[in-house]
Amino acid sequence: MWKNFFNFKDRTSVRGYWMAILFNIIAILILGVLISISEVFFILYLIYILAILIPSLSLSVRRLHDINKSGFWVFITCVPFIGAILYLIWVCKPSVDEGNRFGTSQV
Questions:
Q1: Do the domain assignments include residue 7?
Q2: In total, how many domains does the chain have?
Q3: What is the domain extent for residue 87?
């Protein structure tokens, strides 16, 4: 995720996507625990959240490219409930190699 933080053109595999999501969830949980200990860590939490905004968006776009969908479909999550469910189904789908207009699969 951090290596391609501003790359909106390539593809990301299912494994690569979920490993980045898992890392972010663990980091946010750790920062949440630290905030409950001392509110000084809230600034660090905000900095981390701001730092992952663009990389997370590019990761989502690359994951959609991997299933042969346009990156603009990431905005489907703005539709309450239904959009989030549809997006979750899409990011869990396996890679599409035949006829993918976004290039070859990234391992």
A1: no
A2: 1
A3: 14-92
The length of the chain in residues reads 107
- Of the candidates 43, 5, 48, the residue with the CA atom closest to the CA atom of residue 26: 48
pLDDT at 106: 63
Indicate if the alpha-carbon torsion angle 69, 73, 77, 82 is positive or negative. negative
Overall pTM surpassing 0.85 (yes/no): yes
In this structure, what token pair is assigned to residue 91? 């990011």
Confidence of residue 89 (pLDDT cuts 50, 70, 90): very high
Determine the Cα–Cα distance for residues 94 and 13; give it in Å rounded to an integer: 8
Q: How far is CA 38 from CA 31, 41, 43, 51, 54, in A?
A: 10, 6, 11, 21, 28
Q: Are 91 and 14 in contact (CB under 8 A)?
A: yes
pLDDT at 5: 80
